[in-house]
Amino acid sequence: MNITVLLKSSSQSEPRSVQVRQDDSSLSFICDCPAGERGRICKHKKALASGDDSMLYDEDQREHFENVMEWVTQSGYPDLMKELKEAENTLESAKEKARDIKERITRVMNEGLK
Ligand SMILES: [Zn+2]
Question: Ligand 1: distance of its center to the CA of 45 in Å?
Answer without folding.
Answer: 6
